[in-house]
Amino acid sequence: MAVSQKPMLICDLTQSYAPTGGGGVGTYMREKQRHILERTNHRLLQIVPGEHDRVVEKGRHIWVEVGAKQVRGSPNYRFIMRTGAVREVLEHYRPDVIESLCPWVLPWTAIHYARAHPATALVAGYHTDFPNVHVHRVASDMFGAKLGYALKQVSVAYANVTYRLFDRLYALNEPVKAQLSEWGIHHVNVLSLGVDTHRFDPVRRDPSLRAALGLGAPHFPDHGPLLAYAGRIDNEKRADRLIEMFRQLPPEMGAAMVMFGDGKLRDKLISETQGLPIALPGFVDDRDMLARGLASADIYVSAMADETFGISVIEAQASGLPVVGVASGAMPARVPAGLGLLAPVDDMAAMARHVQTVWARGAREMGVAAREHVASRFSWERTFNQLIGDVYPAALARAERRVGARRGWLVPAPAFARVMG
Known about the structure:
Elements: E1 9-13, H1 24-39, E2 43-50, E3 54-58, E4 61-67, E5 69-70, E6 78-79, H2 83-93, E7 97-100, H3 106-116, E8 121-126, H4 130-143, H5 145-164, E9 168-171, H6 174-182, E10 188-190, H7 209-212, E11 226-230, H8 239-247, E12 256-260, H9 266-272, E13 278-282, H10 287-295, E14 299-301, H11 311-318, E15 323-326, H12 331-334, E16 340-343, H13 348-361, H14 363-375, H15 380-407
Parallel strand pairs: 1-2, 1-7, 2-4, 7-8, 8-9, 9-10, 11-12, 11-14, 12-13, 14-15, 15-16
Antiparallel strand pairs: 3-4, 5-6
Helix pairs in contact: 2-3, 4-5, 8-13
């Protein structure tokens, strides 16, 4: 699509951000900021929860934190209920495009704002399959399968009502797009996320890291593989399953494991793994340090069953690691044959066997293939070129037609392509 260079104010709006604890949305927002400021002439407004109200304007980037209470049981995340404060920010800055990056509460703040300002285009990023992850699995565990399914259907209805009011939606893979279509949501692009292959690179491998984490001699054998995980240490990510998996590895294998990240299970898992060669050093806010940590491991492990994309997985692959995960969500697409092995969901015995198999077959060779795989397919530049060049123009075209309909005239969709930059 041919586009002009007309500057816009783009707004990211989300509850799914935490300054510590990791998360794909946080990575996406950081990389988007870098792309917008370095490669476009647009401005970027990012609105997230914070401990207090705070606005930081620096050139073409505006960072807004809206004071919000912590999510119960979470040491990292906050939830904005002060939608009036968010609306005030939107009214003050008047964005051309609002991109909603979470499903709860704030999408409706964007919808109400666009009703008052119909030229504003609304885009939604479907980063979490919330009817299945946040509703169905949790409710089924708490209340049983029947009620869990019923509550999932309620959340599907909510998604249908909400996202029909957005001008464009993007999913992170084709199966999710197909699922949304089954739910009656059809105005969907597939947007592949990226990886910084210059940062996440096997050359960052540091043989001294294992000892620095307390996982080497003289405390523990160091002849086996160092397993790594990066992400939230919580129930949604099934972080506790990795401990269960590790306990099923034979001691003579000499394996160790590091779990980078923070979350509500971290303190509990630290207590439960005393005496085991497992380190939980917490959230690593320095991305170069995280890249060093991944490159210094041998195998990446994840028990997460509901990845919609898996940024942490491709960061590990870019770092030269094979992956042992579960055959669910986006993981089969991220880990094709030859790049690792996938076990059934929650089958930690099978996952432990896969770790042993990958190590025996040659983890380093699989890691080289994994690096080549992601380096040729995933880049943040490609992601944001598609977002700004395809997704946003489609949304803005619909917004212009909406304005035209209110005025009693209709603008053909192709005509609007000339307005985007």
